[in-house]
């Protein structure tokens, strides 16, 4: 049944990848006669054999179980009401929530009737009965691996003070791309297997690359002080996931190759401690990350007809903004879009809305936090027991660190506006927070 999606050869049992070889090598060379300068380099190949997404693995097992066994996710496209599927991808519908509530008990009863937990007959599986499947593993799935290379130099500047500079390169191969609809259920060119809705696969065709210059100055503890400063100038690009708004093209999986959401061009960290008289100690940490990249999309519209919704604003690329493009480029893209697309039907069959660029919008926020600790040590029972009492403050300046910026240009009221603050739970980077604690050691 899956032959049209993966080919006859794709139905064979997965082969053991016995040739996965992980060599590593490195060297360190004292480059100067005074022994204060060291050059180091290393390279290696590293595999990641652990399938960490157990939810997706469970979805595949459910799809391949005998009909009625296990749990299944049933899309609305396979449920019919008045002769039509409960699926409304292209336009507003007159079908109301009240109508759904009125028919929902009957739908549940019918789906429960189809359940048969004790069924062991594999001649018909949930995939065939439900006419859909989720997160099947591509038969040609390969173990992800990465190639690491680094070279750097370290120099002792003074007693207990060293500076280090490293260039690192990491190339990731066979990274996972989840939830690709191989059946192309919503494609303007039609489904691959008629009568079935989406059949999604997770495959390992993704790529990624990280490059960075890392600079570090460290003063080891001496003279009652310790200090560390580190800076990274980096680039993190790769195949972005299939999430809406990230420009995934089901007809060209590599079209959305670009900066990843985790890409931070500049990262700066400062940390240190000072011992004060009276067994007091002050320590601090400061972190700064530059803005991540940003994508602009139009929700609910498929411009290229590949079956995926919420495509990028035509004329823009995935995570292009904050990476070479700004508000001027966006204004030109909006003008061109309204002239060429607005008010017309897209290839996917949706009406492309007219969009308005708001007067004020942002492409994400920088991250900046300052943490401080003051502690006092008490010696008890002849110094055999130590009691440390300390107080801490996280994000001392209460920097906002806004996140969840909306990239949907079709909604001018929320586009470019934050949806929350970083890490609203207690901790570094979130709203200013205090804590006091005691520690006993003996």
Would you write up a description of this structure?
The protein has 442 residues and is mostly beta strands. The protein folds into two domains: 3-10 and 21-49 and 145-441, no CATH class; 54-134, no CATH class. Helices cover 12% and strands 37% of the residues. The protein contains five helices and 17 strands. A hairpin with a 2-residue loop joins strand 3 and strand 4. The termini are far apart.
Radius of gyration from CA coordinates: 28 Å
Number of domain modules? 2
Binned strand content: 35-45%
Number of helices: 5
Q: For the report, how would you describe the main beta sheet? A: 13 strands, mixed
Low-pLDDT segments: none
Question: Topology of this structure?
Answer:
Blueprint: H1 3-6, E1 24-30, E2 37-47, H2 54-64, E3 80-81, E4 84-85, H3 97-113, H4 126-130, E5 133-137, E6 145-158, E7 161-181, E8 199-222, E9 225-239, E10 257-259, E11 266-276, E12 280-289, H5 327-340, E13 367-380, E14 385-394, E15 402-403, E16 420-421, E17 433-441
Parallel strand pairs: 5-8
Antiparallel strand pairs: 1-2, 2-6, 3-4, 6-7, 7-8, 8-9, 9-10, 9-11, 11-12, 12-13, 13-14, 14-17, 15-16
